[in-house]
Amino acid sequence: MMIIALVFGFFIALSAETVPLGALYALLHPDFVTLLLLYWAISNNSELSFTIVWLIGLFQDIALGDVLGAQAIASIIMIYLLYSGLGRVRSLPPWEQLFFVFLLLLAHRLIVWLWQAWAGAITWHFSLLLGPLLGALLWPLFTFALDHLRHTLRPQHV
């Protein structure tokens, strides 16, 4: 059931990233797929498989037209960093998780940028930092909405 919800959520998050909404949105948009991966890794007791994270990252690279492997390797490293300190992050309320989420989103964005710069596909711009900042600020609302949805869709035992 978790895999079905993750795949469904992934397609919704990916469609939110691929819809062209203008230049300002391109600068400010948070990485919804990465936020979803962080949510699933933090909220579920079972660890998210690195294979699933890698495949989601590769699919995201293909859908966004990024350098192949950029999102995948950044997602793997981000989830590894999260798992190394998961007990501390999971025990915090969402508004306190915000700082750790910002650092993880920033690490993800910088790894993607390094991968793309190494391939010669992108140049540095400070606006690259706005997406992780907005994603971190949206984190409490994002977790509240997904927690509510998860509890609403949970099968009720009579």
From TrEMBL:
The keyword Cell membrane applies. It is a multi-pass membrane protein. It holds the Pfam family MreD. It is found in: Cell membrane. The keyword Transmembrane applies. The chain crosses the membrane at residues 68-86, 98-118, 124-146. GO terms for biological process: regulation of cell shape. GO terms for cellular component: plasma membrane. InterPro entries: Cell_shape_determining_MreD (IPR007227), MreD_proteobac (IPR026034). Keywords: Cell membrane, Cell shape, Membrane, Transmembrane, Transmembrane helix. Belongs to the MreD family. PANTHER family: ROD SHAPE-DETERMINING PROTEIN MRED. NCBIfam families: shape_MreD. This is Rod shape-determining protein MreD. It comes from Acidithiobacillus ferrianus. The gene is mreD.
